[in-house]
Specification:
This protein is an alpha/beta fold. It contains ten helices and 18 strands. Bound molecules: guanosine-5'-triphosphate (GTP) and magnesium ion (MG).
Length: 442
């Protein structure tokens, strides 16, 4: 099975259903009032962590997902049906990024992240009924669902990470201590993807992760690269496995330095993690000498000799791991350097108007674009309400300042309309002026 641990998703919430414009028309009921129901809400797109998944394979094949659209409202005040949510299952340990900022870390079974919100249903004409305006001929289209492009990354959840040069015996060790069965062979880069194994020792359990071998320049992409180190970023303890025979002409001691340099260049956090130097293949004659040399060289560090093949020293290594893990705090949710901070929140409000090269005016902004998308241009009252709102929020003033003339085309989202300059006065102002003029005249 392919292992995919990074995917870009293109998500869209379902569109809200349209509101209905209808009047009660029944025999023996004269003057039946408005009874158009609201549209239903569009379905959300939600990511949900599930322990039964280990890869984004399915998501990589279908990265475009959309919530169901809401149903349209109907007469007799019937609200449209809500669209059902699109729930996407992701493996435990999925970290969500939007515009490079970390948004969520789904590391608990069932934890959810609302990735794209469904649009609200448009209002039917019953919702516009007021004491003064008892027969509104106005209704809205549904709000379009939110569009979101997000990147998801898998950072496996394990307690112990196995690192080392290729062929050091990492997979053999995982197979010895757990029921995981990664491929083991006498050539470098046998392991091509991370493997997890649950280790039970003296009534304690922990999860160990075996990742592909690292070589010099892995941080520049040499060998299989260092991208797999992401999966041991949240382990609490590292076992650095060492082959007493060395690798590719490299002495074991130089190999230790090389791996530590690669860990440090991936992330300082990884370099700081508690490590146990594990000299593997102690059944080979070279084992004892190498263990002795490393113990002398790294006096202050824990150096343990084991053999994944015979099981020698493995119990002592597990004892040590359980003791160390019990002293270390459980890792909290992942926080990348570029985590969302109050200073980096993007607030999109207000509007902007600009004259385009073709002479038309572009009106942009969250509120105005949403209003334009929900406008039903065939209903004159809806158009008047739209124009009134534009005037109230100052769009007319801004257009006048840019030199727009009556009849100029203004584009707002997918809607285009001809601008009609109703003057700077609002209706209320006009009413007040007229009342004043009348009182002066009388
Ligand atoms: N004699 C001896 N051989 C071992 C021991 N552990 C592993 N090996 C051998 O070393 C070779 C490499 O073992 P793997 O477990 O595949 O090594 P790895 O570190 O996972 O290698 P990559 O996945 O390629 O990075 C295999 O031929 C194993 O049989 C050991 O304790 N003693
Ligand atoms: Mg391996």
């Amino acid at each position: 099975m392919d292992f995919i641990d990074r995917v870009r998703l293109f998500l869209s919430g379902g569109d809200g259903g349209s509101g209905c414009m209808s009047f009660r028309r029944e025999k023996y009921i004269p003057f039946g009032g408005p009874d158009g129901g609201d549209g239903g809400k569009g379905g959300d797109v939600i990511l949900e962590a599930s322990s039964s998944l280990f890869t984004f394979l399915d998501l990589a094949r279908r990265p475009h997902r959309k919530g169901e659209d809401g149903g349209n409202g109907k007469g007799s005040d019937k609200t449209g049906e809500s669209g059902s949510d699109c729930v996407i299952c992701v493996p435990l340990g999925t970290v969500v990024f939007k515009d490079g900022l970390c948004q969520a870390d789904l590391c608990e079974e069932g934890s959810r992240f609302l990735a794209a919100k469904g649009g609200r249903g448009g209002r039917g004409n019953l919702s516009f009924k007021t004491q003064r305006h008892t027969a509104p001929r106005i209704a809205e289209k549904g709000e379009p669902g939110e569009k979101a492009t997000i990147d998801i990354e898998l950072k496996l959840l394990a307690d112990v990470g196995l690192v080392g040069l290729p062929n050091a015996g990492k997979s053999s060790m995982l197979a010895r201590i757990s029921k995981a069965r990664p491929k083991i062979a006498d050539y470098p880069f046998t392991t091509l993807q991370p493997h997890l194994g649950v280790v039970s020792h003296k009534e304690e359990n922990f999860v160990a992760a075996d990742i592909p071998g690292l070589i010099e320049g892995a941080h520049k992409g040499t060998g299989l690269g260092d991208g797999f180190l992401r999966h041991i970023e949240r382990t609490r303890l590292l076992w650095h496995l060492i082959d007493p025979l060395g690798f590719g002409g490299l002495e074991p001691r130089d190999g230790v330095r090389l791996i530590e340099a690669e860990l440090a260049s991936f992330s300082p956090g990884l370099a700081r993690k508690p490590k146990i130097l594990v000299v593997n293949k102690m059944d080979l004659p070279e084992g004892r000498a190498v263990l002795g040399t490393l113990k002398r060289h790294y006096r202050r560090r824990r150096v343990i000799g084991v053999s994944a093949a015979t099981g020698e020293g493995v119990d002592a290594l597990l004892d040590e791991a359980i003791k160390t893990l019990s002293e270390l705090p459980k890792p909290g949710p992942f926080r990348a350097a570029a985590t969302l901070t109050p200073g980096s929140v993007r607030v999109e409000q207000g509007f902007s108007v600009a004259r385009q090269k073709d002479g038309r005016f572009a009106l942009r902004g969250n509120l105005v674009e949403k209003m334009a998308a929900m406008l039903r241009p065939e209903l004159p009252e809806a158009v008047a309400r739209f124009q009134n709102t534009l005037r109230k929020i100052g769009v007319d003033k801004a257009l006048r300042r840019l030199g727009a003339a009556e009849g100029d085309v203004v584009c707002c989202g997918a809607v285009e309309f001809e601008w009609q300059d109703e003057g700077a006065e609002t209706e209320r102002e006009r009413w007040r002026r007229k009342a004043k003029e009348n009182s002066v005249g009388s």
